[in-house]
Amino acid sequence: MSLLLDNQFKELPPDKSIDTKLFLDTVSHLPSFFDCLGSKIFSPIKSDISGNITKIRGVYVKDPEKYATLKSILEAEREEHAEWPKAGATLALMWLKRGLRFIQILLQSLADGEKDENNPNLIKVNVTKAYEQALKKYHRWMVQGIFSAALVAAPYRSNFLKALSKGEEVKEEDCLANVRHFLVNYTPTVDAIYEMYTDMNAELDYTV
Ligand code: EIS
């Protein structure tokens, strides 16, 4: 069984609203994936993402009906917090979506066969592309340093693809087909979250 295929995102409805419970149930499988990357350097990244998910879930469980969609959370918090959008689940999702975008760009780049021809079993080009497009502009030099350390610890392409398939002996082409299949609903979901932040004027560009 493929790790990715086990946790497929659902197709978005025409209004592109995202069901909070389904979203949380799907993204909560992501943190455990860091365990198969095999280095402690990934721990702060794992706990950041887990923290975001816990924060959003904490708001959702207070009133599942009121917070049925991600948009309803942003709308409610806009009324409740003077410092919105730098508050509550709105802030947690703002950061989580950047991690999700990172994963999307990384997987898309692998699926597209982008490679360093001199080092075809490294994923540094793919990871760097994802970092530059999704995260770098929000990071000052200290956090960029964590990225550099993580890059050194990045797994080999073959091991990474195996980890995506829970370590099973899956042929590279089959694994890439799984990745492409996963991206079919994943990419529009991440896009929809970005669109919502733009439409609601909830995006911030401060650095950490
Ligand atoms: C936010 O963190 C909190 O998330 C948010 C709130 O506290 C807010 C306050 O301003 O801060 O400081 C964090 C930032 N989060 C801001 C940085 C953490 C370490 C990031 C290191 C970046 C390394 C890049 C990744 C390299 C990975 C190499 C992978 C090789 C395979 C399949 C791999 C998936 C990797 C996914 C990476 C996602 C990184 C996400 C980082 C987000 C970030 O920059 S709140 O908390 O509101 O919930 O309380």
TrEMBL record:
Domain Glycolipid transfer protein residue range list: 18-165
Keyword vocabulary terms for this entry: Cytoplasm, Lipid transport, Repeat, Transport
Record flagged with keyword Transport: yes
Cellular component GO terms, alphabetical: cytosol; membrane
Pfam families: GLTP
Gene Ontology MF term list: ceramide 1-phosphate binding; ceramide 1-phosphate transfer activity
Entry function: Accelerates the intermembrane transfer of various glycolipids. Catalyzes the transfer of various glycosphingolipids between membranes but does not catalyze the transfer of phospholipids. May be involved in the intracellular translocation of glucosylceramides.
Lineage: Eukaryota, Metazoa, Chordata, Craniata, Vertebrata
Cleavable signal peptide: none
Keyword Cell membrane appears in the UniProt entry: no
Similarity field: Belongs to the GLTP family.
Places the protein is found: Cytoplasm
Protein name: Glycolipid transfer protein-like
SUPFAM superfamilies the record matches: Glycolipid transfer protein, GLTP
